[in-house]
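Sample pair:
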Amino acid sequence: MIPVSGAAHHRKAIAHLKRVDPVMAEVIARVGKCTLGVRSEGTHFDALIRSIVYQQLSGKAAATIHGRVVAMIGEGEPAAGKVLATSHELLRSAGLSNQKASYVRNLAQHVVEGSLPVYALHELSDDDIVDALIQVKGIGRWSAQVFLMFRLGRPDVLPDLDLGVQKGIQRAYRLRKLPTPKQVQARGRKWAPYRTVASWYMWRVLELP
């Protein structure tokens, strides 16, 4: 599979999207080149910890807290065990909310107990990855879809719950109301098998003047 960050994939995706959807063709012309990439450093566990820390926080604040958490638990495969060896209070002292500290511990517990095959997630199908991740408190379907897109580079993901994608569709297609998740899925069917790139363009359309 060509990753979504590959130029060859972008070219194929753009050609398909322009062919099947004239509105998308107009958006692509206005936004320009696709620069979608994946965050490949570290382990999948590290990426999920980062995802939990960054939820509902501004970039700078999240980066500071994430840095403290990493300094505390390290990175790589030993990190899950280190989370469980770290008290809830100590995790909170890094700046995590009470809820997020419990989410981080719940994630680590699933990994250590083996109920979440975190280091083999890339071997699973998209649906199986979502089903595996939503077992963890604090990781819902939206977070799982973002993991598929920006960690694993899966090419055909449409985050129908994402407010940015909904607003992008509303603006691009001049809709009176914000589309529902079901309406997002219906509109995005023609974009398959390149719905990840299509979603990226829906986010970018909101940045246009």
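The CA atoms of residues 31 and 208 lie 7 Å apart.
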